[in-house]
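Q: Hi! First time doing this. I have a protein sequence and I read that you can turn it into a structure. Is that right? Here it is:
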Amino acid sequence: MKLFHKFLLALIIASIIPLLIFSFILLKTTGGTLKNIIDQNNANKAENVTLEVNSFFVEIDKKFDMARQIERNPGMTSAKKGGMLMEGFISSKHLLAAYLLDDSGKLVSGMHGEGVAFSVDKALFAKSSKSRQVEVGAITRDHENNPYFDAVYPIDSKSNEYLYLRANVKYLLKRIEMYLNSGVAGKKTDIVLIDASSLSAVSLKDKKLVNLPEEAVKKYAGLEAGKAYEQGWDTIITVQSGGPGWLVIFKEPLSEAYAPVTKLKVTLVLLILITGGVAFLGAFALAQNLVKPVKVLMAGMETVSIGNLDYQIPEVSKDELGKVAVIFNNMTKKLKKLQEDLKRTERLSTIGQMSNILGHEIRNPLAAITNATYLINMELKKNPETNPKMFKRIEIIENEIKSTNKIINDMLDYSRSRPPVLSSQDLNALVRSLVEEAKRPENIKVDFEFGNIPNVNVDVEEMKQVIRNIVNNAVDSMVSNGGRLRLKTGRGSTAAMVKFEVMDTGSGIPKDILSKIFEPFFSTKSKGTGLGLAVVKRIVEERHNGIIRVTSEKDRGTTFTIELPVVNLSPGGTA
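A: Yes, that's right. Below is the predicted 3D structure, encoded as structure tokens:
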């Protein structure tokens, strides 16, 4: 048997057997617990409906306060009684009618809703008249099959009157309907209110009145309150209400009530089947994935081997093979950098040779031109009648000679190969002397913020060139609108370095060219070689082992930061 098949079989066994054991335990524990939770939830729902029914009868009882007021005020006029009935009826959504009857059952005063005709349950009236107690009638229905019941309160007064109320059971059904629309119960769930005394019942689903067999009502009444029973295809929960003692029946199909338990069983079976398939596919895919990174590595090595050093092997995995890819990519980057450094060295060598030729072949003619210009200028000054335009033209020639000399000097500086002549220098004094000697526009102010720093090892002439270049660039950026130039020194990022910052409030450097400003021959000015900052970077980093950084914000200014090594560093870490 091949290793692949052994691995596949072991993985399937290791995944299926624990799953079967876990599924059995889960079904026994979780299934039973889930069923108990469902039963308890339905019992709570039935109890809440019962509380709603009890609240309904409490509201009916409050309406009997009208009769109690008449008892406490025997002299109350008929008009006042009628007004009280009207007010009590209008403020009650659960009443269909409110009447005041005399001892013969005739109407004295009253109100009833639209579509409700005056009628009295004579048997209920007679029963209340005989018992002198509040009597509640059975649930009945009107001509539209809307359920209602009557209640009679015998008023203990000289007039011997009765308060007769007709309660709207349909209103009660609307109040308890929210327990079916809560999103917990299913579409087939029902709540039934049963009047055991009259064997009449009202179903919430159809809101119609039906008569039940006496055996069925006794069976419901005999069930333990709040306990779930299975009857046929339904689960039944019975709770006794207050008031006249109606039964509240919560009925829900077993398929809906215990749907989560059934779903759990089906899910477990599907889980076993799916896991078996996934285990097989996973083992197969795992073997394929072990080979795939190796193929990617081989393809990457072949690509690099033909000279494409820009190629980077994608992340193949998080394991050892992934680390191999990372190491290979780093090796490729270093190889590319070495190649670029070699090209750069060759380019610098070419620039150096060209600079030597320019210095020898062009400077000599420029010197002759400069001398000749000087002599011409002197001769012209001796002649008072000389045209002033001639002096202007001589000045243009001199400026162009200076510009050409600067280009040659920049190229010679960039290609300089001699080692720097390092000496211990006070950077604060060097910066101050250079900046104070230089000419600058009156609209530019200079702030010196010098810290207490040790001397630095620098080539004086080269460092002067660095400071001039950066300060001149800062001044150029502020010359049109003015500004403030801040020159700051202090400790560097390590104890072995000191920091020099040049901050201006000029127009700033656009983000898209900020990364290019140190590149040779890159310039945004109309004149110049673009070697100024390239020379600065080479002097600082290559010839002085320093660091140069730049940050800039549009219309807020630019900051150049240079870090240079100190002269001596003691073992304790201070200069």
